[in-house]
Amino acid sequence: MYQLSSQKLKATHLERSAYLYIRQSTLRQVFENTESTKRQYALKQKVLALGWPGDLIITIDSDLGRSGTSSDNRQGFKKLVSEVGMGHAGMVASLEVSRLSRNSSDWVRLLEICALTDTLIMDEDGIYDVNDAGDRLLLGLKGTMSEAEMHFLYSRMRGGTISKARRGELKWVLPIGYVYDGDDKIVMDPDTSIQNAVNVFFLTFKRTGSAGATVKEFNKKGLRMPIRFRTGIRKGELAWKPLTHSRTLRFIHNPLYAGIYCYGRQQIKKTASGKKPVKMPIKEWHAYMKGAHPGYITEDQFEQNVKKLADNAYAHGKDRRKSPPREGPALLQGIIVCGKCGKRMTVRYQQNISKLVSVYVCQRDRIENGAKVCQTVAGEKVDEEISKLLLEMINPLAIKAAIKVQNELGARKLEADKFYDQQLERAQYEAELAKKRYMSVDPGNRLVATELEASWNQKLRHLEEMQQKLEKKKEKDLEEVGQAARKDITRIASDFPKIWNSPNVSFREKKRMVRLLIEDVTVKNVDKKTIANIRFGAATTKTLIIDRKLSMCEIRKTKKEIIAKVDELTENHIPSEVADILNRQGCRLWDDSMFSFKSVRYIIRAYGLKSRYTRLREKGYLSLPEKMAETGYSQKQIFQMRNEGKIISYRATERNEYLYEPKDMGKSLSKKVNRREGVQYEA
Q: Which of the residues are catalytic?
């Protein structure tokens, strides 16, 4: 084979360099599959045998431990392509085509460049000239097979992983609070201090309703969360560290804490910029099994927590930041949020007789993109209902109830006390263990004894710090609202309505009081109602449904059912008759007045209904001149025959205009009736 291949080798190829490309997919293969690496380096001897001097053979092995599925992060392959493109390479040598690339686009691109620069390609089987049709076909097949081989290997391994996950048997590193038992089942960590820490975390988040507030409360109380090292010399060891915001989000977003076994929350997807992890919706997860193991929270609590985080993300976005209180009467200025798009709303004022009336407008999209205004909310009634709510909430009875609740919070503090007691117990255990290690060491081994003594002293100092923190916390928790403080708070609650309604209190001061109690208010217009969701500073919420103040055009607008009745009655009646029928049925106009022929005529014109005259004309009824032309009678004779009932006519307008039935219509109607009755009609 090499004898045939040598015929493709020319002197022009030997004048240029020969590049030997060496690659292994992973570092594990580099360390374990050493024979493959040796074979790749041994290919240099074959290149030497073809006539290349040793100084013109360049070995590129910087891609050891890199996958060939993409050219990303393969600096060696990029260098090889650039050298071939500049015409420096006479031949590219590699043990197999798969070493160069397992991606068709990269492989075809390399072949095109080799064809342009007349560069040969060599593998273990022989030498190939890319400009030769047979060699080009063979190289294309090898590249395709190399890519397909990678696909089959990946699909086989990936399929086994997914199949195991769907049975709930796939194992991975569990989050803190869970371990595998002897049967490889997920169970709660037998360490009760870890269980208590996780329970306290979720109770704190439920109480605060915010990831940031949870972190602040933990750090304020000096509480720490457990963590197990996954790598390194301390792998598997337990440590207690301060809670961070990123860990808080991972706790809340992890379905395992709700007893849900899942796999495929993040999947690798190909994009224009390469592969990257993408968060997938639940319906596209590979495995989702509810109640697969014990949970620290319920499934409903998990969904509520995730939804709460999503709401908070909108609440702290740039469009919902509070602006400072200003002089206008808009009570919710700076804290009102659009319930449709989630953006902060601005305030407009309109002059209404002798006072300014606020109007809340969501116009961020209009300002930035020239779009339509999202929604407009009349602020007068919303501000009024918010004021009533605040006056109801801040009253002596409510304050007394709040003080009672404050005293009852002592039961909740027991949870934190239990947490501290367990940490103190652990510190005592570690100090005793360090003492035993020190006491059992050989006194002659001074190096080890010194190290163990230092470790013992460190554990003792940590134990002392824990005891001091526990004492300080218990002293602080024992503080309760005193009698004098209770009287002052109750008195303030009694005076609050007077202060709020006082004309001497400016709008700016009222807004400052509102912001002490309310974080933000989300409003949305639904039909003729305005729904206001109020989020208080204590992480509580309340929803108000407020009757929306309608504009005059909306108030005067005729109801749909009235329009339908007018349309139905106009089929057989003129406007005055329609008005009489509506009045007898108890229907009224917007101002509670009775219908007249003018109001009915206006409805017919305004809503594009067909008049009585138009309907009769469409059915083929004739006007007076047309009837005279049809019968040959005079106007007086037509009137006389109409009064005597000899011809069929209908009143079409209020001006006593009549339309007459043509002769053919009467015959066709009679013929249809006779045929329906089974009698042959004779004209």
A: 25
